[in-house]
Amino acid sequence: ERLLHKESCFFQGRNITLQQTSSAGAGLYNLGNTGFLNSVLWCLTYTPPLAKDLLSREHSRSSRQQGFSMMCVMEAHVNKILHFSASAIQPWTVVNVLTRIGEHFQHGMQEDAHEFLRYTVDAMQRACLSGSSDLDISSQATTIVHQIFGGFLRSRVFVTCLSCKAVSDSYEAFLDVPLDIKEASSVTTALEDFVKPEQLDGKNCFKCSKCDKMVAASKRFTIHRVPKVLTVCLKRFEDFIGRKISKVCRQLEHNFLFPEQEISQSSTVFHKLFML
After folding, report:
1. How many whole angstroms separate alpha carbon 168 and alpha carbon 165?
2. Please, are residues 45 and 37 in contact by the beta-carbon 8 Å criterion?
3. Distance in angstroms (rounded) separating the CA atoms of residues 166 and 169
């Protein structure tokens, strides 16, 4: 019920289409260790529903936000890329605002592409929210950014004590899904591992709100609402020690299928790989 209630709506009346509507535009020059930035901009530029919205300049026409706006930056960049006659351009529009996207980003330093993607999409989301930070989760999910990339995870905890056998559900908005590839042979198996139940016991017991004590429980994630454009991050570094996983995920499917029983929605959901 909480997910259905909205105080505000930032995106309505526009159709989100996944069909590619624009041809290849200009390439991007490397301005000194900007490969991570170029790859992210390339992916975002050719995400059909996002490109369509940015080309329309709908955000800059309707937004009342003052100062820095990542949506306006991306509008300028995408329009330049797709309407420029040269074979390549210098992406200064984005490079010049690196520290506005993330304080720790510096021109000339090599950065992680997924981290930059996350910061960029988050900055676009903040721009869509016009700087509002106290909106309910359902209102935040109505932006064009969340309508394209966003989904909801459901975390369900089954309490195993005989006194109550309670079930606790909580919901969390997400813009990407991190997948552990250390033991997975493919993206599909990594997705299956992501929704496997986790046992909570010993020092990791669950505080049951019904019987008000620490109890053993089983916790699992399911996809409550699937995004139209699913972003997955293959976790290539081991926790704590930060060592890179040398294993190659050899089976990178062109079509991803969530196990139907792991989705709150009733229909089967396919995702087709279009950008890497």
Report:
1. 10
2. no
3. 10
What are the angstrom distances between the C-alpha of 28 and each of 46, 91, 94, 262?
Answer: 13, 6, 12, 40
Backbone angles phi, psi at 194, to 5 degrees: -60, -35
Q: What is the pLDDT of residues 52-80, one digit of tens each?
A: 999 999 888 887 778 899 999 999 999 99
Q: How is residue 264 written in tokens?
A: 């709150």
Q: Residue 265: what residue type? A: Q
pTM: 0.78
Whether the predicted pLDDT of 256 surpasses 70 = no
Residues 6 or more apart from 94 whose CB is under 8 A from it? 37, 41, 73, 74, 77, 101
Cβ contact 120:44 at 8 Å = yes
Tokens matching residue 54: 């940015």
Query: Does the CA dihedral 261-274-58-89 come out positive or negative?
Result: positive
